[in-house]
Amino acid sequence: xxxxxxxxxxxxxxxxxxxxxxxxxxxxxxxxxxxxxxxxxxxxxxxxxxxxxxxxxxxxxxxxxxxxxxxxxxxxxxxxxxxxxxxxxxxxxxxxxxxxxxxxxxxxxxxxxxxxxxxxxxxxxxxxxxxxxxxxxxxxxxxxxxxxxxxxxxxxxxxxxxxxxxxxxxxxxxxxxxxxxxxxxxxxxxxxxxxxxxxxxxxxxxxxxxxxxxxxxxxxxxxxxxxxxxxxxxxxxxxxxxxxxxxxxxxxxxxxxxxxxxxxxxxxxx
Length: 270
Known about the structure:
The protein is an alpha/beta fold and 270 residues long.
């Protein structure tokens, strides 16, 4: 395990709970009658449930901003920053941010809010539900240094949701070349969509390819598979399994969080 994992999260094999922000101004599903105050109230309830349930960190994302943009509008970052700023006095654990799907904007939001880590798709070219999805990691990493975000840990999602790598490459090769060329702090391995399970075998292939880089299970981790997943993964990001009835778009259910975290504590190394 990399020392920074324990330094940042305080534990080995940390569990990062998702706080999915409701639709924001400019999003098709935004409700102007309820306004941004309602977005904050929903997020606060989820934050309180996640912390009461015992997660090790929280990751804020604009999950309800469907369909996603690969270059987001300024209003999205501004509204996310406003909501997170209101939430910060209630946060007792580390937090990260993810502006779907814009790596540069995610770093801007991290600087604005004081987030300690960012999860994004930094590398690769994909055919996706959002069109041709291209990235520019060299420009993004330079942007990170230009805005003083060198301290922000970068979680590279190397299997983007709802997308396929255009090149005919194996996941192990993608992991190796990503680590060699861009030096991510951690890799995230995802399923097709939020809530879709990643096979433990896929996690094992990635981990064996880059044994010195933390590898996180990024989607589909739940009470039934978490013990097996954490035999390989260095941590997990959990959203859907923490929600009421395990449904991505529902509020966080504190009892589901407690049940999963109780199991994690039983299997986590001392």
